[in-house]
Amino acid sequence: MDLDGSESAAPAAASTIFGDRLKLAEQYVDLLERHGVERGLIGPREVDRLWDRHVLNSAVIGEVIPEGARVVDVGSGAGLPGVPLAISRPDLDIVLLEPMARRVDWLTEVSETLSLSLTVLRGRAEEKQVRDRVGLADVVTARAVAPLARLAGWCLPLVRPKGSLVALKGASAQDEIERDRVAIAKAGGDAPSLTMCGSGVLDTPTTVVLIERTEKRKTARSRRQAGARSR
């Protein structure tokens, strides 16, 4: 049931993905249906495809996130993928990071309305003071935020060594990987890999690029020092 008591239009896959927390997912979709367009969170054309294109698409990335992980969702916006992930995986410690005040207000309202254990912070991942405040995470997620090269530069500094950046991407994901491979390595990422989440559950599985954070990247100064010692 939705917040207003109407019959839910949740697809069958939603029950598989959310289990006994399906009602929370229905309430979240209802909030987006009623307020998403007027608050600039989603486009008018997205209202009729919230479940398949946005909510289920986001929730299934839990398949690649370890139990009990600390997750930072960068550029959370309407709460995607962070809110569906928090509903489907209550074991996770999730921080929603968003630079726009009105969206931070929305995320806070959603968290309180659904009684989700979420931390909502305002800021940009590329700002040092924000990185210091957020700290390191096991996993950083991002959906429709930026190309991989820029995304790696923003997000990998928030990932602990051996943790992962989980980037939700579209059909051009493999092309992005090939184009941005060098930039990803410079940002501290290992070789990116492509995986599909939700196979066998969703009609269109979610395309995800996984990038593991390598050991702490060397600064220009440390590289010069290493070069001097080798001479």
UniProtKB/TrEMBL annotation:
UniProt name for this protein: Ribosomal RNA small subunit methyltransferase G
Subcellular location: Cytoplasm
Main location per the UniProt record: cytoplasm
Family per record: Belongs to the methyltransferase superfamily. RNA methyltransferase RsmG family.
Alphabetical list of InterPro entries matching this protein: rRNA_ssu_MeTfrase_G, SAM-dependent_MTases_sf
Residue stretches in coiled coil: none
NCBIfam families reported in the protein's UniProt record: rsmG_gidB (TIGR00138)
GO molecular function, one term: rRNA (guanine-N7-)-methyltransferase activity
Signal peptide boundaries: none
Positions annotated to bind S-adenosyl-L-methionine: G75, L80, A125, E126, R143
Organism, as annotated: Prauserella marina
This protein's GO CC annotations: cytosol
Pfam families linked to this entry: GidB
EC number of this enzyme: 2.1.1.-
Alphabetical keyword list: Cytoplasm, Methyltransferase, rRNA processing, S-adenosyl-L-methionine, Transferase
Function of the molecule: Specifically methylates the N7 position of a guanine in 16S rRNA.
